[in-house]
Amino acid sequence: MDTSFGKKEKLKSQKTIGQLFTEGKSLTIFPLKLIYLRTEQQEVCIKAAVTVPKKNFKRAVHRNKIKRLLRESYRLNKGLAFNNTQGNFAFLFLYLGKDMPAFEDVASKMKLLLEKFNARIHEKTNA
């Protein structure tokens, strides 16, 4: 399994991000929230983006640090989602907490969130 998080895997389309907020389904394991949406054919099966609200973290350095933590924890755990899904998805990870997290906390919650996503997807396909 490739554990990089390259340019092709990053979600940059404003149109798709807008669709995520309007039509996307969400899962939450505090302090992380995953908004996902099945998308049209892409070059990779999952495109992901991360965001941290300015309301909770006024300073850009703090928001950027949390985004780096989110991207790294996704990169290390993305095999859980890539290996167990059929179809194409767009992911948006939101950080909901109000305190600066430790990497271990973010990584463990990311793993739980991706497992919950897999369970929900398999539940839908088997129903």
UniProtKB/TrEMBL annotation:
One of its GO terms (molecular function) is 3'-tRNA processing endoribonuclease activity. Its EC number is 3.1.26.5. It comes from the Bacteria. The keyword RNA-binding applies. InterPro entries: Ribosomal_Su5_D2-typ_SF, Ribsml_uS5_D2-typ_fold_subgr, RNase_P, RNase_P_CS. It catalyses: Endonucleolytic cleavage of RNA, removing 5'-extranucleotides from tRNA precursor. One of its GO terms (biological process) is tRNA 5'-leader removal. One of its GO terms (cellular component) is ribonuclease P complex. Pfam families: Ribonuclease_P (PF00825). Keywords: Endonuclease, Hydrolase, Nuclease, RNA-binding, tRNA processing. RNaseP catalyzes the removal of the 5'-leader sequence from pre-tRNA to produce the mature 5'-terminus. It can also cleave other RNA substrates such as 4.5S RNA. The protein component plays an auxiliary but essential role in vivo by binding to the 5'-leader sequence and broadening the substrate specificity of the ribozyme. Consists of a catalytic RNA component (M1 or rnpB) and a protein subunit. Belongs to the RnpA family. This is Ribonuclease P protein component. It comes from Maribacter algicola. The lineage of its organism: Bacteria, Pseudomonadati, Bacteroidota, Flavobacteriia, Flavobacteriales. The gene is rnpA.
